[in-house]
Prior knowledge:
The chain is an alpha/beta fold. The chain has a single domain (about 1-275), classed as Rossmann fold, CATH 3.40.50.150. The chain has helices spanning about 25-30, 45-50, 55-70, 85-90, 105-110, 145-160, 175-200, 220-230, 250, 255-260, and strands at about 1-10, 15-20, 75-80, 95-100, 115-120, 130-140, 160-170, 205-215, 230-240, 270-275. Strands 5-4-3-6-7-10-9 form a seven-stranded mixed sheet, sandwiched between helices. Helix 6 links the parallel strand 6 (about 130-140) and strand 7. Helix 3 packs across helix 4 (about 85-90).
Amino acid sequence: MKSWYKYLLNYENNKRSFPIDSAFDDHKRSMGGYDASKGYDSKEEFFKIYIQEAPSRYRYYHEYLKAHLKKGDTIFSIGSGQCANELLLMEEGFDITCSDLEQACREETMRLFPRLSFMKYDITKAPLEKKFDSIISLGVFYLFGKDALAEVFKNISESLKPGGSFILDPGGAEDSICTRIIDDFICPLEIRLAEFLKKVLKNIDCVVAKKKHGYRTTDVEIISIARKAGLYLCDTKHQDYFTEFMRSVFFGKMPRAVVEFIGRIVPYIRMFTFKKEGS
């Protein structure tokens, strides 16, 4: 496991370091906010904006979840955010309870989807009071360090019925030589060049700030931590060979087909399905 940092141009003050998100509002800002000004006119518009026209990972999520969840099972979602994937599955007949530290766009969401079941819940604190057939979490686990991740998997295991499943995308490509090059060399170099050009050519005052984004894990680490919690891998699938390289301006200017070919060594989506022992 490796600490994962991102870099940004800070125009507001001279602060050069920011900690990892520790509250819902912090994470909401990092995600670009949960904007209720668009996509909430109708269900059709909501799914168009937040699934069809959203980053490709949401479509990958939907395909994988539909193939690995069962209608009639009780399903619990951890860190649901705007609940886009969960709401689409709910509309297709799945029984899902969503959760997060806060509910994003509560009034607008409940107006469109009055049957949505949502609860405030912090998976790092304790297991759920009720046991579920399946638990899912999409793009959240990169926020947890090693000790927290072990506790989270333990709580999930205790919240599943015997034979229940846990479906996970930890969020981001795994820790590897390639992602370390992107994180530690390419992105810092590009952002410092951008700072230089802003200051020298445009006379804009700014500084490079380093923000702790979370943690990079390997597939082996995820599987090992899950196994210690009594969860055993039964399926995995890697997808999206484009997004990780798009963090670089240089790679962003290359043809998509070339980037996707290179990107097969760092898939952005890492889906895992674990099972809890029992029948």
